[in-house]
Specification:
The complex is a heterodimer of chains A (162) and B (238). Chain A has 162 residues and is α+β, with helices and mostly antiparallel strands. Chain A folds into 2 domains: 2-25 and 120-154, no CATH class; 33-115, OB fold (Dihydrolipoamide Acetyltransferase, E2P) (Beta Barrel), CATH 2.40.50. Chain A has helices at residues 2-29, 35-41, 120-154, and strands at 47-53, 59-60, 67-73, 76-82, 95-103, 108-115. In chain A, strands 1-3-4-6-5 form a 5-stranded mixed barrel. In chain A, a hairpin with a 4-residue loop joins strand 5 (95-103) and strand 6 (108-115). Chain A is elongated and about 90 Å long. Chain B is mainly α. Chain B has a domain at 58-189 and 203-230. Chain B has helices at residues 2-35, 49-76, 79-111, 119-140, 144-158, 161-171, 190-233, and strands at residues 181-182, 185-186. Chain B has a two-stranded antiparallel sheet with strand order 1-2. In chain B, helix 2 runs antiparallel to helix 3. The longest helix of chain B has 44 residues, at 190-233.
Protein backbone atom coordinates (compact mmCIF):
# COMPACT_ATOMS: atom_id res chain seq x y z
CA UNK A 1 0.00 0.00 0.00
CA UNK A 2 2.89 2.31 0.76
CA UNK A 3 4.19 1.83 -2.79
CA UNK A 4 0.76 2.74 -4.15
CA UNK A 5 0.61 6.04 -2.26
CA UNK A 6 4.25 6.86 -3.12
CA UNK A 7 3.61 6.22 -6.83
CA UNK A 8 0.51 8.39 -6.80
CA UNK A 9 2.31 11.12 -4.86
CA UNK A 10 4.97 11.32 -7.58
CA UNK A 11 2.30 11.32 -10.32
CA UNK A 12 0.35 14.13 -8.67
CA UNK A 13 3.54 16.18 -8.37
CA UNK A 14 4.25 15.72 -12.08
CA UNK A 15 0.71 16.78 -12.98
CA UNK A 16 0.96 19.75 -10.61
CA UNK A 17 4.13 20.91 -12.41
CA UNK A 18 2.42 20.55 -15.80
CA UNK A 19 -0.60 22.46 -14.44
CA UNK A 20 1.67 25.23 -13.17
CA UNK A 21 3.41 25.50 -16.57
CA UNK A 22 0.03 25.59 -18.32
CA UNK A 23 -1.17 28.41 -16.06
CA UNK A 24 2.09 30.32 -16.67
CA UNK A 25 1.63 30.01 -20.42
CA UNK A 26 -1.98 31.18 -20.09
CA UNK A 27 -0.89 34.26 -18.13
CA UNK A 28 1.87 34.98 -20.62
CA UNK A 29 0.06 34.37 -23.94
CA UNK A 30 -3.70 34.32 -23.39
CA UNK A 31 -4.85 36.34 -20.41
CA UNK A 32 -6.58 39.59 -21.30
CA UNK A 33 -7.27 42.77 -19.36
CA UNK A 34 -10.40 44.89 -19.42
CA UNK A 35 -10.53 48.66 -20.10
CA UNK A 36 -11.14 49.18 -16.34
CA UNK A 37 -7.83 47.49 -15.47
CA UNK A 38 -6.04 49.30 -18.33
CA UNK A 39 -7.14 52.73 -17.14
CA UNK A 40 -6.52 52.04 -13.46
CA UNK A 41 -3.08 50.42 -13.79
CA UNK A 42 -1.69 52.19 -16.93
CA UNK A 43 0.69 49.31 -17.75
CA UNK A 44 3.72 50.04 -19.94
CA UNK A 45 4.23 46.46 -21.14
CA UNK A 46 2.47 44.91 -24.13
CA UNK A 47 -1.02 43.74 -23.14
CA UNK A 48 -4.07 42.02 -24.59
CA UNK A 49 -7.13 44.21 -24.22
CA UNK A 50 -10.60 42.67 -24.53
CA UNK A 51 -13.83 44.53 -24.97
CA UNK A 52 -16.80 45.21 -27.25
CA UNK A 53 -16.51 47.78 -30.05
CA UNK A 54 -19.01 50.51 -29.21
CA UNK A 55 -21.71 51.09 -31.83
CA UNK A 56 -20.83 54.06 -34.01
CA UNK A 57 -17.30 54.40 -32.60
CA UNK A 58 -15.54 52.74 -35.55
CA UNK A 59 -13.81 55.49 -37.59
CA UNK A 60 -11.30 55.46 -40.41
CA UNK A 61 -8.81 58.27 -40.59
CA UNK A 62 -8.04 60.20 -43.79
CA UNK A 63 -6.24 58.35 -46.63
CA UNK A 64 -6.93 54.94 -45.07
CA UNK A 65 -5.01 55.77 -41.94
CA UNK A 66 -5.55 53.49 -38.94
CA UNK A 67 -8.93 52.75 -37.47
CA UNK A 68 -9.99 54.38 -34.25
CA UNK A 69 -12.64 52.86 -32.08
CA UNK A 70 -13.74 52.61 -28.51
CA UNK A 71 -13.66 49.31 -26.62
CA UNK A 72 -15.92 48.95 -23.64
CA UNK A 73 -16.40 46.38 -20.92
CA UNK A 74 -18.07 46.60 -17.48
CA UNK A 75 -19.20 50.13 -18.31
CA UNK A 76 -15.66 51.47 -18.86
CA UNK A 77 -14.42 52.63 -22.30
CA UNK A 78 -10.89 52.77 -23.69
CA UNK A 79 -9.89 54.47 -26.94
CA UNK A 80 -7.97 52.30 -29.36
CA UNK A 81 -5.93 53.15 -32.45
CA UNK A 82 -5.48 50.08 -34.65
CA UNK A 83 -2.29 50.08 -36.76
CA UNK A 84 -2.58 46.56 -38.18
CA UNK A 85 -3.79 45.30 -41.58
CA UNK A 86 -6.52 42.88 -40.49
CA UNK A 87 -9.40 45.36 -40.39
CA UNK A 88 -12.07 42.96 -41.64
CA UNK A 89 -12.62 41.69 -38.08
CA UNK A 90 -13.52 45.19 -36.88
CA UNK A 91 -17.28 45.63 -36.67
CA UNK A 92 -19.63 47.49 -34.37
CA UNK A 93 -20.72 45.54 -31.26
CA UNK A 94 -18.16 42.78 -31.86
CA UNK A 95 -16.12 41.54 -28.88
CA UNK A 96 -12.45 41.39 -29.81
CA UNK A 97 -9.01 41.12 -28.27
CA UNK A 98 -6.38 43.61 -29.45
CA UNK A 99 -2.68 43.33 -28.67
CA UNK A 100 -0.64 46.49 -28.13
CA UNK A 101 0.57 49.08 -25.63
CA UNK A 102 -1.08 51.77 -23.59
CA UNK A 103 0.11 55.27 -24.43
CA UNK A 104 -0.65 57.19 -21.27
CA UNK A 105 0.45 60.58 -22.71
CA UNK A 106 -2.07 60.27 -25.56
CA UNK A 107 -4.68 58.39 -23.55
CA UNK A 108 -5.02 55.69 -26.24
CA UNK A 109 -4.22 52.01 -26.61
CA UNK A 110 -2.09 51.47 -29.76
CA UNK A 111 -2.81 48.02 -31.12
CA UNK A 112 -1.29 46.18 -34.09
CA UNK A 113 -2.88 42.75 -33.80
CA UNK A 114 -6.31 41.23 -33.33
CA UNK A 115 -6.76 37.90 -31.57
CA UNK A 116 -9.71 35.56 -31.05
CA UNK A 117 -11.52 35.80 -27.71
CA UNK A 118 -9.88 33.18 -25.48
CA UNK A 119 -12.89 31.06 -24.25
CA UNK A 120 -10.40 29.36 -21.93
CA UNK A 121 -13.14 28.46 -19.42
CA UNK A 122 -14.28 25.73 -21.81
CA UNK A 123 -10.76 24.31 -22.02
CA UNK A 124 -10.40 24.24 -18.24
CA UNK A 125 -13.84 22.62 -17.79
CA UNK A 126 -13.12 19.91 -20.37
CA UNK A 127 -9.81 18.95 -18.74
CA UNK A 128 -11.15 19.08 -15.18
CA UNK A 129 -14.33 17.07 -15.88
CA UNK A 130 -12.47 14.40 -17.84
CA UNK A 131 -9.14 13.96 -16.05
CA UNK A 132 -10.20 14.25 -12.42
CA UNK A 133 -12.81 11.43 -12.62
CA UNK A 134 -10.25 9.38 -14.56
CA UNK A 135 -7.63 9.83 -11.84
CA UNK A 136 -10.15 9.02 -9.09
CA UNK A 137 -11.33 5.88 -10.92
CA UNK A 138 -7.81 4.54 -11.48
CA UNK A 139 -6.76 5.27 -7.90
CA UNK A 140 -9.87 3.62 -6.42
CA UNK A 141 -9.38 0.51 -8.59
CA UNK A 142 -5.70 0.18 -7.71
CA UNK A 143 -6.43 0.62 -4.02
CA UNK A 144 -9.22 -1.95 -4.12
CA UNK A 145 -6.98 -4.50 -5.86
CA UNK A 146 -4.19 -3.92 -3.31
CA UNK A 147 -6.66 -4.38 -0.42
CA UNK A 148 -8.13 -7.54 -1.97
CA UNK A 149 -4.70 -9.12 -2.33
CA UNK A 150 -3.96 -8.31 1.32
CA UNK A 151 -7.30 -9.72 2.48
CA UNK A 152 -6.99 -12.92 0.47
CA UNK A 153 -3.36 -13.42 1.49
CA UNK A 154 -4.04 -12.95 5.16
CA UNK A 155 -7.31 -14.94 4.85
CA UNK A 156 -9.17 -12.32 6.83
CA UNK A 157 -12.36 -13.23 5.05
CA UNK A 158 -14.27 -14.15 8.17
CA UNK A 159 -13.49 -14.18 11.82
CA UNK A 160 -15.95 -16.15 13.93
CA UNK A 161 -17.28 -14.44 17.02
CA UNK A 162 -15.94 -16.24 20.08
CA UNK B 1 -5.59 -22.94 -13.21
CA UNK B 2 -5.98 -21.01 -16.49
CA UNK B 3 -7.49 -18.13 -14.54
CA UNK B 4 -4.67 -18.12 -12.00
CA UNK B 5 -2.01 -18.10 -14.71
CA UNK B 6 -3.85 -15.32 -16.56
CA UNK B 7 -4.15 -13.19 -13.42
CA UNK B 8 -0.48 -13.79 -12.66
CA UNK B 9 0.42 -12.61 -16.17
CA UNK B 10 -1.71 -9.47 -15.71
CA UNK B 11 -0.05 -8.71 -12.41
CA UNK B 12 3.41 -9.06 -13.91
CA UNK B 13 2.91 -6.81 -16.94
CA UNK B 14 0.38 -4.21 -15.80
CA UNK B 15 2.95 -1.90 -14.22
CA UNK B 16 4.79 -1.50 -17.57
CA UNK B 17 1.58 -0.46 -19.28
CA UNK B 18 0.82 1.99 -16.47
CA UNK B 19 4.34 3.45 -16.58
CA UNK B 20 4.36 3.96 -20.36
CA UNK B 21 0.83 5.42 -20.27
CA UNK B 22 1.81 7.88 -17.52
CA UNK B 23 4.88 9.06 -19.48
CA UNK B 24 2.94 9.50 -22.74
CA UNK B 25 0.01 11.29 -21.09
CA UNK B 26 2.30 13.62 -19.13
CA UNK B 27 4.19 14.46 -22.36
CA UNK B 28 0.88 14.87 -24.20
CA UNK B 29 -0.52 17.24 -21.57
CA UNK B 30 2.68 19.27 -21.53
CA UNK B 31 2.81 19.66 -25.31
CA UNK B 32 -0.95 20.15 -25.57
CA UNK B 33 -1.32 22.79 -22.90
CA UNK B 34 2.09 24.51 -22.92
CA UNK B 35 4.00 24.25 -26.20
CA UNK B 36 1.45 23.77 -28.99
CA UNK B 37 -0.04 26.82 -30.64
CA UNK B 38 -3.75 27.70 -30.81
CA UNK B 39 -5.85 27.14 -33.91
CA UNK B 40 -6.34 29.96 -36.43
CA UNK B 41 -10.14 29.67 -36.37
CA UNK B 42 -10.92 28.11 -32.99
CA UNK B 43 -8.20 29.71 -30.91
CA UNK B 44 -7.43 28.14 -27.53
CA UNK B 45 -10.57 25.98 -27.60
CA UNK B 46 -8.84 23.55 -29.97
CA UNK B 47 -6.92 22.21 -26.94
CA UNK B 48 -10.07 20.32 -25.94
CA UNK B 49 -9.27 18.05 -28.90
CA UNK B 50 -6.36 16.57 -26.91
CA UNK B 51 -8.75 15.01 -24.38
CA UNK B 52 -11.94 14.62 -26.40
CA UNK B 53 -10.52 12.59 -29.31
CA UNK B 54 -8.47 10.19 -27.12
CA UNK B 55 -11.53 9.56 -24.94
CA UNK B 56 -13.72 8.81 -27.96
CA UNK B 57 -11.09 6.60 -29.59
CA UNK B 58 -10.60 4.71 -26.34
CA UNK B 59 -14.36 4.30 -25.87
CA UNK B 60 -14.52 2.61 -29.27
CA UNK B 61 -11.39 0.56 -28.59
CA UNK B 62 -12.84 -0.62 -25.28
CA UNK B 63 -16.14 -1.59 -26.89
CA UNK B 64 -14.21 -3.53 -29.51
CA UNK B 65 -12.40 -5.29 -26.66
CA UNK B 66 -15.78 -6.06 -25.08
CA UNK B 67 -16.96 -7.48 -28.41
CA UNK B 68 -13.94 -9.76 -28.76
CA UNK B 69 -14.11 -10.90 -25.12
CA UNK B 70 -17.85 -11.60 -25.50
CA UNK B 71 -17.23 -13.90 -28.46
CA UNK B 72 -14.42 -15.55 -26.51
CA UNK B 73 -16.70 -16.06 -23.51
CA UNK B 74 -19.51 -17.61 -25.57
CA UNK B 75 -16.92 -19.96 -27.08
CA UNK B 76 -14.86 -20.94 -23.99
CA UNK B 77 -17.20 -20.07 -21.07
CA UNK B 78 -14.32 -19.16 -18.75
CA UNK B 79 -15.18 -17.00 -15.75
CA UNK B 80 -12.04 -14.87 -16.00
CA UNK B 81 -13.04 -13.95 -19.58
CA UNK B 82 -16.42 -12.89 -18.22
CA UNK B 83 -14.55 -10.72 -15.71
CA UNK B 84 -12.70 -9.11 -18.63
CA UNK B 85 -16.04 -8.49 -20.40
CA UNK B 86 -17.48 -6.85 -17.30
CA UNK B 87 -14.31 -4.76 -16.86
CA UNK B 88 -14.27 -3.66 -20.51
CA UNK B 89 -17.94 -2.67 -20.39
CA UNK B 90 -17.47 -0.49 -17.31
CA UNK B 91 -14.43 1.23 -18.81
CA UNK B 92 -16.15 1.68 -22.16
CA UNK B 93 -19.07 3.38 -20.39
CA UNK B 94 -16.67 5.69 -18.56
CA UNK B 95 -14.81 6.74 -21.72
CA UNK B 96 -18.04 7.09 -23.70
CA UNK B 97 -19.47 9.39 -21.02
CA UNK B 98 -16.20 11.35 -21.02
CA UNK B 99 -16.30 11.66 -24.81
CA UNK B 100 -19.90 12.93 -24.75
CA UNK B 101 -19.13 15.43 -21.98
CA UNK B 102 -15.94 16.85 -23.52
CA UNK B 103 -17.60 16.93 -26.93
CA UNK B 104 -20.51 18.89 -25.51
CA UNK B 105 -18.12 21.37 -23.87
CA UNK B 106 -16.26 21.74 -27.19
CA UNK B 107 -19.53 22.14 -29.10
CA UNK B 108 -20.71 25.19 -27.17
CA UNK B 109 -17.98 27.66 -28.29
CA UNK B 110 -17.63 26.17 -31.80
CA UNK B 111 -21.24 25.36 -32.79
CA UNK B 112 -22.96 27.53 -30.15
CA UNK B 113 -24.88 24.44 -28.98
CA UNK B 114 -24.31 21.95 -26.14
CA UNK B 115 -25.94 19.21 -28.23
CA UNK B 116 -27.11 18.66 -31.80
CA UNK B 117 -28.81 15.60 -33.27
CA UNK B 118 -25.88 15.07 -35.59
CA UNK B 119 -25.34 11.47 -36.92
CA UNK B 120 -22.03 11.02 -35.13
CA UNK B 121 -23.21 12.41 -31.81
CA UNK B 122 -26.47 10.44 -31.98
CA UNK B 123 -24.75 7.13 -32.79
CA UNK B 124 -22.25 7.74 -29.99
CA UNK B 125 -25.11 8.41 -27.57
CA UNK B 126 -26.67 5.10 -28.67
CA UNK B 127 -23.37 3.40 -27.75
CA UNK B 128 -23.65 4.97 -24.29
CA UNK B 129 -27.21 3.68 -23.88
CA UNK B 130 -26.18 0.19 -25.06
CA UNK B 131 -23.49 0.07 -22.39
CA UNK B 132 -25.90 1.29 -19.70
CA UNK B 133 -28.28 -1.49 -20.77
CA UNK B 134 -25.45 -4.03 -20.65
CA UNK B 135 -24.48 -3.14 -17.08
CA UNK B 136 -28.11 -3.02 -15.93
CA UNK B 137 -28.70 -6.49 -17.41
CA UNK B 138 -25.63 -7.79 -15.61
CA UNK B 139 -26.70 -6.25 -12.31
CA UNK B 140 -30.35 -7.25 -12.30
CA UNK B 141 -30.14 -10.87 -13.50
CA UNK B 142 -29.79 -13.11 -10.47
CA UNK B 143 -28.43 -16.09 -12.40
CA UNK B 144 -24.86 -14.91 -13.05
CA UNK B 145 -24.13 -17.41 -15.80
CA UNK B 146 -27.31 -16.57 -17.70
CA UNK B 147 -26.57 -12.87 -17.19
CA UNK B 148 -23.09 -13.27 -18.62
CA UNK B 149 -24.47 -15.07 -21.69
CA UNK B 150 -27.20 -12.50 -22.36
CA UNK B 151 -24.73 -9.65 -21.86
CA UNK B 152 -22.28 -11.21 -24.29
CA UNK B 153 -25.04 -11.50 -26.91
CA UNK B 154 -26.04 -7.85 -26.30
CA UNK B 155 -22.44 -6.72 -26.69
CA UNK B 156 -22.08 -8.60 -29.99
CA UNK B 157 -25.30 -7.12 -31.38
CA UNK B 158 -24.32 -3.63 -30.18
CA UNK B 159 -21.04 -3.83 -32.10
CA UNK B 160 -22.94 -2.76 -35.25
CA UNK B 161 -22.87 0.79 -33.83
CA UNK B 162 -19.08 1.12 -34.10
CA UNK B 163 -18.80 1.29 -37.92
CA UNK B 164 -21.86 3.57 -37.93
CA UNK B 165 -20.08 5.97 -35.55
CA UNK B 166 -16.88 5.87 -37.59
CA UNK B 167 -18.44 6.32 -41.04
CA UNK B 168 -21.34 8.61 -40.04
CA UNK B 169 -19.43 11.75 -41.09
CA UNK B 170 -19.00 10.26 -44.59
CA UNK B 171 -22.43 8.65 -45.07
CA UNK B 172 -24.52 11.63 -43.92
CA UNK B 173 -24.24 15.42 -43.93
CA UNK B 174 -22.72 16.00 -40.54
CA UNK B 175 -21.85 19.05 -38.50
CA UNK B 176 -19.07 17.02 -36.89
CA UNK B 177 -15.75 17.36 -38.68
CA UNK B 178 -14.40 14.30 -40.53
CA UNK B 179 -11.37 12.35 -39.32
CA UNK B 180 -8.19 14.39 -39.21
CA UNK B 181 -6.14 11.27 -40.00
CA UNK B 182 -7.49 9.08 -42.80
CA UNK B 183 -6.51 7.33 -46.03
CA UNK B 184 -6.92 10.72 -47.76
CA UNK B 185 -4.10 12.18 -45.67
CA UNK B 186 -3.48 14.16 -42.50
CA UNK B 187 -5.38 17.42 -42.10
CA UNK B 188 -3.85 18.56 -38.85
CA UNK B 189 -0.93 20.94 -38.31
CA UNK B 190 2.39 19.30 -37.27
CA UNK B 191 2.40 21.44 -34.14
CA UNK B 192 -0.89 19.88 -33.04
CA UNK B 193 -0.03 16.41 -34.30
CA UNK B 194 2.47 15.81 -31.49
CA UNK B 195 0.14 16.21 -28.48
CA UNK B 196 -2.71 14.60 -30.48
CA UNK B 197 -0.64 11.45 -31.06
CA UNK B 198 0.87 11.34 -27.57
CA UNK B 199 -2.51 11.63 -25.88
CA UNK B 200 -4.18 9.21 -28.30
CA UNK B 201 -1.60 6.48 -27.80
CA UNK B 202 -1.19 7.25 -24.08
CA UNK B 203 -4.91 6.98 -23.26
CA UNK B 204 -5.20 3.76 -25.30
CA UNK B 205 -2.33 2.18 -23.32
CA UNK B 206 -3.94 3.54 -20.16
CA UNK B 207 -7.12 1.68 -21.09
CA UNK B 208 -5.12 -1.55 -21.42
CA UNK B 209 -3.69 -0.92 -17.95
CA UNK B 210 -7.12 -0.11 -16.47
CA UNK B 211 -8.56 -3.27 -18.07
CA UNK B 212 -5.84 -5.37 -16.44
CA UNK B 213 -6.45 -3.78 -13.02
CA UNK B 214 -10.25 -3.96 -13.26
CA UNK B 215 -10.24 -7.59 -14.45
CA UNK B 216 -8.07 -8.50 -11.45
CA UNK B 217 -10.39 -6.56 -9.16
CA UNK B 218 -13.48 -8.42 -10.38
CA UNK B 219 -11.73 -11.79 -10.30
CA UNK B 220 -10.42 -11.23 -6.75
CA UNK B 221 -13.85 -10.05 -5.58
CA UNK B 222 -15.42 -13.25 -6.88
CA UNK B 223 -12.61 -15.28 -5.32
CA UNK B 224 -13.23 -13.60 -1.99
CA UNK B 225 -16.98 -14.25 -2.22
CA UNK B 226 -16.28 -17.88 -3.09
CA UNK B 227 -13.95 -18.20 -0.07
CA UNK B 228 -16.59 -16.67 2.19
CA UNK B 229 -19.15 -19.13 0.82
CA UNK B 230 -16.81 -22.08 1.46
CA UNK B 231 -16.02 -20.91 5.00
CA UNK B 232 -19.73 -20.57 5.75
CA UNK B 233 -20.42 -24.04 4.38
CA UNK B 234 -17.70 -25.48 6.65
CA UNK B 235 -19.85 -24.53 9.64
CA UNK B 236 -17.91 -21.50 10.84
CA UNK B 237 -21.03 -20.31 12.58
CA UNK B 238 -21.34 -23.42 14.77
Amino acid sequence: MKGLYLRWGVLMMVFAVIGFLAISRYNRDVRTISPRVLLSESPSAEKRLMGMIDAGSLKRGSDGVPFRFSLSSEGVKASVIFLGDDTESLRDLKTIVVVGRWKAEKGVFEAAEIRLTPNYNFVTSAYVFSLIPLILLIFSMERRVALLYVMIKEEKVYQAAV
Amino acid sequence: MVATRFIGWLRRFEKWFGFVAAILIAAGLYTGLVTSSPDYYQGEVVRIMYVHVPFVQTAMLSYFTLFVCSIWYLWKRESVVDNACHAAAGLSLFFTAGGLLTGSIWGKPTWNAWWVWDPRLTSFAILFLTLVGYLMLRTFLEDKEKGATFCAILAIIGFIDLPIIHFSVEWWRSLHQPSSISTRGISIAPDMMVPFTLMGVGVSILFAYMLMVRTQMLYLQHLLEAKQGRLLSEGQFE
